[in-house]
UniProtKB/TrEMBL annotation:
<dbReference type="GO" id="GO:0010181">
    <property type="term" value="F:FMN binding"/>
</dbReference>
<protein>
    <submittedName>
        <fullName>NADH-dependent flavin oxidoreductase</fullName>
    </submittedName>
</protein>
<dbReference type="InterPro" id="IPR013785">
    <property type="entry name" value="Aldolase_TIM"/>
</dbReference>
<dbReference type="GO" id="GO:0016491">
    <property type="term" value="F:oxidoreductase activity"/>
</dbReference>
<dbReference type="Pfam" id="PF00724">
    <property type="entry name" value="Oxidored_FMN"/>
</dbReference>
<dbReference type="InterPro" id="IPR001155">
    <property type="entry name" value="OxRdtase_FMN_N"/>
</dbReference>
<feature type="domain" description="NADH:flavin oxidoreductase/NADH oxidase N-terminal">
    <location>
        <begin position="8"/>
        <end position="338"/>
    </location>
</feature>
<keyword id="KW-0560">Oxidoreductase</keyword>
<dbReference type="InterPro" id="IPR051799">
    <property type="entry name" value="NADH_flavin_oxidoreductase"/>
</dbReference>
<keyword id="KW-0285">Flavoprotein</keyword>
Length: 373
C-alpha cells in the first residue's frame, strides 16, 4: 500500500468499545432485490458479500420497520419474526468479511409507496402531495395521528430488537434523505401544531427508544449510529443552522457515530448563515471530536479517498464507488489503486457485477454517475 493511505487502514474504537478494523464504510444502498415479503433473498446475500470486502463497517440497505413505511420495491424488512433468519444471513456474511455489520432502520413516511403499503394509506408528519422512489407522478400522504406516531417510534425499537436477535453489531437510524425521521425534522414536511411539530421531538424519541432497547437487550458493544441530511432543497427546509441544533442534541445521546448524507463530501452550504462553507468542515467543527463522523459522497478513486481523508472525517463511506468496483478498498490496500473502476460503464453489463435491478437503474440514469474518462 502507498504510505499516504496508511492512516485509512488504522483501526477505530467506538465509544461502546467495539473496534472497526479500518476507516472504510459501505454506505447504505437500496438494491430492490429482497423478496416481495421483505425477507432476504439469496441474490441479496451474494450481493452484500461482494460489496463488503476490505471495509471496516458495512451498512445494509434501508430496511423498513413497518410495512406501512415501505418506500421501495424489493426493500428489506426488519419488522417481523420471519425476517430474522434472512437478516442473520446478512449479518453473518458481512462479519465473515471482517467488517462490523449494521442494519439501517427506516420508515418512508410520506415517501412510502401507495402500491406497497396496506390499503395505499401513505402517511407522515403532515398532509402533502409528494413524489416517491422513481415516480413521475406525485401521490397523496395524510398526517399521522398521535397514536400512529407512538407506534412508529415503538417500531424502531422493535426493529432494533430484531437486529440484536439476528446477530447484527448495530443499527443505523435513518434520519436522512427525506424519509420519516427527516420529515419530522423538516419545516417543509412537518407543519403540525401539536407537540410533534417541535422539530427535535420525534427524532429524539426514536433515538431514546432505540437506546432503551439496546440497554435492555443488546450486548454492551452494540453500535448505534444516526444518519442525517444537513440541508434540503425544499423551502422552508432544513438548513445548516437547524442541523447544528440536531447535532448538538445527538451529541448528548449515547450514540457511537454520526453519518452525514451528502452527494459530494466537498459540497458547500446552499444558503443562510453558513452559505459557501464546506458542510463537512462545519459538522466536524461542531462535533469537535466528541463522536466519529462518517463522511460520504463522490469518492471513487484513490485520489478521491485521499482528498476526502484530508477533510478530517475519521470514517469514509463509499456508495457508488463500491457499486462500480467492489474491490475498491482491496485495490488500495494492495497498492493497485490505479486499477480501480471509478466510473459507470453503460456498455459493459458484466463490468460492475451489479444485480440486474441496480444495473438497470444506473443505465437508465436514475442515479447520477461519473462516465468513463
Ligand atoms: C443506488 C443507491 C441506493 C441508495 N440507498 C440508500 C439507502 O438505502 N439509505 C441511505 O441512507 N442512503 C442511500 N443512498 C445514498 C448513499 O448512501 C450515499 O449517501 C450516496 O450515494 C453518496 O455516496 P456515494 O457518492 O459514495 O455514492 C443510496 C444511493 C444510491 C446510489
Amino acid at each position: 500500500m502507498k504510505e499516504a493511505f496508511q492512516p485509512l487502514f488504522q483501526p477505530l474504537t467506538l465509544a461502546n468499545g467495539s473496534t472497526l478494523k479500518n476507516r472504510f464504510v459501505l454506505a447504505p444502498l437500496t438494491h430492490t432485490i429482497s423478496n416481495e415479503d421483505g425477507t432476504v433473498s439469496d441474490r441479496e446475500v451474494a450481493y452484500m458479500d461482494s460489496r463488503t470486502k476490505g471495509i471496516g463497517l458495512g451498512i445494509t440497505a434501508a430496511s423498513y420497520t413497518n410495512v406501512e413505511g415501505q418506500a421501495f420495491p424489493g426493500q428489506p424488512s426488519i419488522s417481523k419474526d420471519e425476517d430474522i433468519e434472512g437478516l442473520r444471513r446478512i449479518a453473518e456474511t458481512i462479519k465473515a468479511n471482517g467488517a462490523k455489520a449494521v442494519v439501517q432502520i427506516h420508515h418512508g413516511g410520506v415517501k412510502s409507496l401507495p402500491n406497497l403499503v396496506p390499503n395505499g394509506d401513505v402517511k407522515g408528519p403532515s398532509e402533502v402531495d409528494t413524489l416517491g422512489f422513481f415516480n413521475k407522478e406525485p401521490h397523496h400522504a395524510r398526517a399521522m395521528t398521535g397514536d400512529e406516531i407512538q407506534q412508529a417510534i415503538k417500531d424502531f425499537g422493535h426493529a432494533t430488537s430484531l437486529a440484536i436477535q439476528a446477530g447484527f453489531d448495530g443499527v443505523e437510524i435513518h434520519g436522512a434523505n427525506h424519509y420519516l425521521i427527516h420529515q419530522f425534522f423538516s419545516p417543509y414536511y412537518n407543519r403540525r401544531e401539536d407537540m410533534w411539530g417541535e422539530p427535535l421531538r420525534f427524532p429524539m424519541a426514536v433515538v431514546d427508544e432505540v437506546v432503551r432497547v439496546v440497554d435492555e437487550e443488546g450486548p454492551e458493544d452494540f453500535i448505534i449510529g444516526y444518519r442525517f441530511s444537513p440541508e434540503e432543497a425544499e423551502s422552508p427546509g432544513i438548513t445548516m443552522s437547524r442541523t447544528k441544533c440536531l447535532v448538538d442534541a445527538l451529541i448528548e445521546k449515547p450514540l457511537d457515530y454520526l453519518h452525514v448524507s451528502l452527494g459530494d463530501i466537498h459540497s458547500v452550504t446552499r444558503e443562510g448563515e453558513y452559505q459557501g462553507e464546506k458542510r463537512i468542515s462545519l459538522l466536524l467543527d461542531w462535533i469537535d471530536n466528541r463522536m466519529p463522523l462518517i463522511g460520504v459522497g463522490s469518492i471513487y478513486s484513490g485520489q478521491d479517498v485521499l482528498d476526502a481523508h484530508a477533510t478530517g472525517a475519521p470514517l469514509l463511506a463509499l456508495g457508488r464507488g463500491l457499486l462500480f468496483d467492489p474491490a475498491l478498498v482491496e485495490k488500495i490496500e494492495s497498492g493497485r489503486e490505479e486499477e480501480i473502476i471509478d466510473y459507470f460503464d453503460p456498455e459493459r453489463e458484466d463490468k460492475h457485477q451489479l444485480p440486474e435491478e441496480l444495473w438497470q437503474a444506473f443505465a437508465a440514469g436514475h442515479y447520477p454517475s461519473p462516465k468513463k474518462h
